[in-house]
Fold this protein.
Amino acid sequence: MNTTSLTRRSALRLIAGGAAALAFTPPRLLASSPAPHAKPIPSSGEMLPVIGLGTWRTFNVGADARALENTTAVMKAFFNAGGGMIDCSPMYGSAREVLGHGFEQIGIPETLFSAEKVWIRDGRRTAEQINESLQLWGVDHFDLVQVHNLLSWEPHLENLRRLKGEGKVRYLGITTSHGRRHDDVEAILRSEDIDFLQLTYNITHPEAERRLLPLAADRGVAVIANRPFDGGGLIRRLKSGNYPLPSWAAEIDCSNWAEFLLKFIVSHPHVTCAIPATSRVEHLRENMGGGLGRMPDEAMRRRMADHVRAL
Amino acid sequence: MAVWLSYSLEDFVPFTLETWQRLIERHNAAQWPLQVVALAAGLLVLVWVWRRPSALRPAFLLAGAWGWTAWKFLAGPYADLVWAGHWFAWGFTIQAGLILAWGLAAAKAATPPLPRAVAAIGWILAAGGIVLFPLAALVSGSGRADLQVFGIFPDPTVVSTMGLLLLLARGPVLALLLVLPVLWSAVAGATAWAIGASLPLALPLAALATFAAAIGAALAGRFSAPSTSADANRT
Ligand SMILES: NC(=O)c1ccc[n+]([C@@H]2O[C@H](COP(=O)([O-])OP(=O)(O)OC[C@H]3O[C@@H](n4cnc5c(N)ncnc54)[C@H](OP(=O)(O)O)[C@@H]3O)[C@@H](O)[C@H]2O)c1
């Protein structure tokens, strides 16, 4: 992605200036399909499409030629629909190589926002692991590197700052999930200068709304919502349980549950993007719809949460 | 909430059922026609043990099966998917070494008699790993996506090993030789459960039966005089 010249301070000023800075931008026009809404990364002002792509499990397919063809098709559909962020980790088995294989086939799209993680206990080996990941992805830098699950976060963050200076990494961040270690995350948000926080936030797990999301906004930190479908169980339950979408979902341009669940997440003013994972092109297309059309306002968001809770 | 309480089995299994079945299918294709050789070797072990329950020859074949599974499967295509695959491969290699050492040491030792029930469990598991695993895939019609053969894949290797060890080893040696198979049974059961594979409890139950039988054998050993006959554990 192209860097903009906005500094962290000016972006923070924008945020302090009100909702305008966090409002959704009108979709850009892309050749293949309407581009999804985008939101600014607070520390730079760079715009990021609100729907990204996760890779846990879905992209860990090894050297299976048939499955590789499929993951490449998912990547292609993602970028055709204006997708940006792809999130991966050394923890995800062969997913990094699988992404590399995909990029070999389709080239490296201009809109790619590569989000890797560092996941190694030895805090001296940050650069080593990142170099390995760069090679596997087949890219020359990462847009974002996050300390996975806060593992050895102190030395890794220090090393990431150095790598940022060298241009190998553009943004740095931390991740957690399942509501784990929110106190530690809060302490890091308060004490460290980071660009991104990744955590679990979805319609059935909105706990982060209370402390972490406002704090991240306050600190000018972008938020990535992982497990948007609660690992898949939530959307599978809604789809297979024969729960029809409420008719009022049409007011926010939702025609399926994926759009409904994702719009709930990315319409939160402090969430920058969500990263649903999928191994299916048809699911990917549904998911990308979560970044298109009208978005819910606060009253609608409450209605959505109440509705799902009641099912 | 305590952090550890937030973990579930799914958090530790980084692939889907579909990927697992494709892995089995791909590995079967890559190993073909070794499955036939492995099946024949497995049957040969059963015949050897039936005719003369001594450890030496079965131990050589069993060690080979563990070693082959370790380096052709666990450190190979399995490790592409699971970062711990290499560690598991080393575990299997250690088990191969232990089995070999036991086979050499116990080559001429007499095998004390076994209670009928214990011997029956031993035979069911030994034959189950070698015959039932591939048969189940054929019967269920899932073919190569489920076809797991002794010596090529870990699960049937582990199940038949537990059975053969019950029939051939005793006392602390048996306990030592069962540690890794039992651990693998837990790993395999948890994996199958997490991805929704069929019969997730098969290996844990086999391990449990082995454990119960091993205790039965130990108790029987304590209350009965040791036999001098090598054929004494035949049911
Ligand atoms: N600590 C961390 O850093 C951390 C922790 C958790 C997750 N993450 C990141 O966040 C990403 C997302 O989380 P997740 O993968 O755990 O869970 P998720 O995105 O909530 O759910 C993924 C599951 O949902 C299914 N799915 C996706 N779209 C669907 C649709 N339209 N209809 C029906 N089913 C659909 C997928 O199956 P199909 O393949 O069949 O579509 C997959 O099984 C991860 O992939 C990872 O990149 C990071």
Notes: Residues 65-80 of chain A form the longest helix (16 residues). Chain A touches chain B through 21 residues (CB under 8 Å). The radius of gyration of chain A is 18 Å. Residues A 54-56, 58, 87, 148-149, 175-177, 198, 226-232, 235-236, 239, 258, 275-280, 283, 286-287 surround NAP (CB under 6 Å).
